[in-house]
Structure formats: C-alpha cells, structure tokens
Write a structure and sequence with these properties.
With 225 residues, the protein is an alpha/beta fold. The protein folds into two domains: 3-109, Acetylglutamate kinase-like (Carbamate kinase); 125-217, PUA domain (Archaeosine Trna-guanine Transglycosylase, Chain: A, domain 4), CATH 2.30.130.10. Helices cover 30% and strands 20% of the residues. It is built from eight helices and eleven strands. The protein has helices spanning 3-10, 45-56, 63-75, 90-95, 111-117, 130-139, 180-186, 194-198; strands spanning 14-19, 39-40, 79-84, 102-104, 125-128, 143-144, 148-152, 160-165, 170-175, 205-207, 212-214. The strands form three sheets. A five-stranded mixed sheet has the order 7-5-8-9-11, sandwiched between helices. The protein is elongated and about 65 Å long. It starts with a helix and ends in an 11-residue tail after the last strand.
Length: 225
Amino acid sequence: QNSPFIGAKIGAEAVILLSDVEGFYTGDPSHEGSKRYTLIREITENMERQAREASSGKGKGGIWPKLQAAKAAINTNMICIVADGRIEGVLRRIMAGDDIGTIFVPSEAEGWKAAVASGGVLKAQIVVDQGAKKAILERGKSLLAAGITEVRGYFSAGATVSIVSEDGQEIARGWTNYSSSQTYNIKRKHSKLLRDIYGKSAPKEIVHRNNMTLARTWTPNVLVK
C-alpha cells in the first residue's frame, strides 16, 4: 500500500501492483457471470464494499488493500494497474499494452490523456520508422511526416490515432492534425513541403507532442472483459 505514496514523491506517472489476483471484478471472480474491469475511472462505495466482503472470505484476501492503494494512486494523479504477477512476462506485456489486469485512471488530472488512452485497440494507425520512434520516446518530439512509413485505416483530422513502430509495437497515441488521406499523401516528406501542399496555415506536425501520450503510461482497455 505504500507504493502510491513513494510514486507520488518521485513523480511517477503510474504504479503497477502485482499479486495473485487478475484484477478487480464486477462480482465474485469464482462466479461465472463475473467480469473483469479493465478500466476504472472512479472507485465507488459499492466497489469498496465488494472488496471488503471479498477480502473477508476464504481464499479471496488481497483485493481490498490493492483497491485502497489504487485509490491513493488516482487521488495523487497517477495511473494504477493491478495484475496477476504469476503471468509470464507480465511487466513486459503491461508495457506493451496487452489486456491484462485492471487499470485505474485519475478522473480529473490530464483527462484528455485518459480519454486518449482508454480507447481500446485502434484501427487508425500511423506506422513510423526507427528514427521517429526514438525521437518520440527518447527526446519527446512531435510526429513529423518524414518519419511516417505507412497509414492504416481511415480517420479524419482531429481523430485519435495509434502511433506504431515497424515491428508492431504501439508507442503512443494522440490527436492528428491531418486525415488519413492527407497523411498518406505527405508521408516521408519534409515538413517544409506540407505548407506548399496544404497552405500556409498547415501545421508541420502530424501529431503534436502536446496532444500525444506515450504508451508506457497506460494500457489500452475497454470497460470489462
């Protein structure tokens, strides 16, 4: 339960809690109708009561303190992920965005990032080369046309898109300044050419850094599964 407070002190963006539970469920996990929450933005009184009751039962201990830790995390504007530590490669899979465990997201702080991150698997994808990947992940840069190798799916300007490396790893999400057809027309082109093609007011960034959130800070999920 101390990890959220340690995370807050060091400025962490997320806390991962590993145990022998797969996450938080809509009911008793042993019951056939119970489903795992994969995304929770608010911990309700009903959820807390359910966790207390589950923790008092035989073989169900552990979820109550984790729910309290998750509550502490989101109250300090951190994402919290509760997952089964027995899963092989669980940390790597969480960082890769696999549907594992339950993710708790702050409801107020950086709400647009939570909205972008919680969209599930996106069909709208922009594939980037290694140089663009490093620029985004290591230097905090915006996505420029020159680093784009492929455009997948159909989307309009202002839509949320997934930024994917050539090896299939999702590295970020963000709001795009251009539609899929526009992005396709300018991929691999220098930023200076964008205004020649789309006018003087055309932004040079396909996805601006301020409108982007990195994949390492969230896991793409739906409500329950």
